[in-house]
Amino acid sequence: MAAEKVDKVDAKIMQILSQDGRISWRDLAEQIGLSLTPTLRRIRRLENDGYITGYSAQFDEQKLGFGITMYVWVSLERQVEETLKVFERRIADVPEVMSCYLMTGEADYVLRIVVPDLPSYQRFMLDVLTRIPGVSRIQSGLAIKPVFQRAAPPIPR
Q1: Is the pTM of this model over 0.90?
Q2: What are the DSSP calls for the chain, one per residue?
Q3: Distance between CA 103 and CA 3 in Å, rounded?
Q4: pLDDT (tens digit per residue) in 91-135
Q5: Residue 1 pLDDT > 50
Q6: Domains along the chain?
Q7: How far is CA 134 from CA 13, 78, 85, in A?
Q8: Bridge partners of residue 70, in order along the sequence
Q9: CA torsion angle for 88, 92, 94, 95 (degrees, to 10)?
Q10: CA-CA distance, 6 to 156, in Å (whole number)?
Q11: Cβ neighbours, 10 Å, residue 91
């Protein structure tokens, strides 16, 4: 998809939807300054062209009992296709892993993990990460508090 197809109005729609995915189409149209029909046309185009890939609820991890967020940098013994595939398949099945990115730099992957407490994280390390074939190095950092997280890209200038 070419970024040129997304104008400032489209970006504003995505910004608003990222903050309130349950906003009524009428309220959205009012906020962007268009009538309902062109607003709906734009939303459908953004969905059909793959810019909007879905809608979901956001959850309070703390209230759900996951008080610890860890970022984990994982290095593999070898960066060959089969080793990468094995790691990705195994880690995708672990519910504590909220996100996983293949990286450049010193680590091959960075994971965001949520667990109830530090003993749970230790169990995750010993029972999950260290048992995945090819893992050679694990570094982790405890997130102290979330500052912000954006769900939509910046509006084009």
Answers
A1: no
A2: --GGG--HHHHHHHHHHHH-TT--HHHHHHHHT--HHHHHHHHHHHHHTTSS--------TTTTT--EEEEEEEEES---HHHHHHHHHHHHT-TTEEEEEE-SSS-SEEEEEEESSHHHHHHHHHHTGGGSTTEEEEEEEE--------SSPPPP-
A3: 24
A4: 999 999 999 999 999 999 999 999 999 999 999 999 999 999 999
A5: no
A6: 3-48 (1.10.10.10), 68-142 (3.30.70.920)
A7: 43, 7, 11
A8: 113, 142
A9: 150
A10: 8
A11: 19
Token match 């009538």: residue?
A: 35
Can you tell me which residue has the tokens 């996951």?
66
Neighbours of 124 (CB within 10 A): 22
Tell which wins on pLDDT, 1 or 43. Answer: 43
Q: Smallest Cα–Cα separation from 116: which of 93, 96, 139, 141?
A: 96
